[in-house]
Fold Caspase recruitment domain-containing protein 19.
Amino acid sequence: QSYCHRLQHDMYFLTSTSRLNEQVVDKIVLQLNRVYPQILTNEEAEKFRNPKASLHTRLSDLLKHLQKKGDRHCQEFYRALQINAEQLFNDLPSRKILKTPDPTEIDTDKEQYMLNDRGPVFFLACFSVAAGLALVWYCCNSETQVIGRARRILGFSPIIIGRHVRNICMLYLEDISRN
């Protein structure tokens, strides 16, 4: 969405009563007049800071003027508004639309919470059951014929050491114990 469309969308919100006071509008106009590249000329800045005209009229004219000038000018207005009235900038209707997520998009934070809602005790219980089953399977397996001492030393190896490394270590321990 372009800044001009956003400004058109936010225009009523900005010009409604007591949203922006006169000092903030003057600061915004001065910033748009002094910033590089210069958004408002000196004559335009004086016109929009004229205390004889009502604040509502000056602000409406300023916003219409910026929309006619183009997207870059509207973007600089939003930057000046953010610097001089950050709370108002955050409350803009166009900002709220930008902040609302797409309803079809998956909220990863919420999804992560939903997957992990059981807590650490559940994880430790599952891990303990898996480790116990691996240990029982390893100790009761008839393929590995190793002596008792080697079996006791490498009893927890299925958890830590890979199958090939474990087999090599067990063969080495068997050869040492035979000699």
User: Anything to note?
Assistant: Residues 47 and 58 are 8 Å apart (CA to CA). Confidence is low (pLDDT under 50) at residues 106-113.
